[in-house]
Amino acid sequence: MDRIYSKVDNLMTKTNAFVSVSILFNNRSIVSINKNNPFRAASVIKVPIMMEAFRQHRDGLLNLDDPHPIHPPETVGGAGVIHYLSGQKNYTLRQLIELMIIVSDNTAANLVLKAVGMESVNSLMKQLDCQDSALERFFMDHSAIEKGFENRTTAQDMMTCLQAINEPHPLFTKEDQMTMKQILHNQQFKDMLGSFTSSKEIEIFHKTGELEGAQHDVGVFEYRSEIVYAAVLTDELLKNQDGRELIASVGQLVVDHLLDD
Predict the structure, then answer these.
(1) What is the reported pTM?
(2) How many separate helices (H) and strands (E) can be counted in the chain?
């Protein structure tokens, strides 16, 4: 176990960026570096938004299969595809959740967040004991950013969210957990934690996040009967590519650890 910690620590000594890493192997902490330090959340905060949508669906407060038309003023730029599409746009909330996660669509994320309510997501995170995470603004809301509002999270809080999706939890049905895992499994941005999961026996369920100077990836690795949770958050990067390479290196260490165990 000390080997992977030493290798991760060695990676961190080679960067001047602000980095947090938390890794659990079969629910035992094997790497814990700055895990409670808050970071700009970027798109990894879309994970608890998805969770709150499924929780409300379970409680009959929201129907994920209702059609949801998208009006031009609701589209925003940044990550995603909706703002590039022409013609009338009409999706179900379930499809918007899928777009929010698998291609990190910001328009979809804002619509889902509007449907579930920002305070409801914050309340869910408190219920999950994610005490250092908060949503303060919608995605691509530059006016809110200029006023000092920012979404934030920690590696530890993201691990808590992943565990609530992957393990029995009173807030979520088994069926909804399996659906959320499948959505995470369909992630299209695979150049970080998932870069080295070439073995067909290793599956990864994860969500990435990116802002200028910040790169994140949080996910669950499954290999036979082994489970690894990993969260890597970076900020104050001189180049975003440096963050992607660092996170990919951590992902490789996780895969090597699984295959060598």
Answers:
(1) 0.95
(2) 9, 9
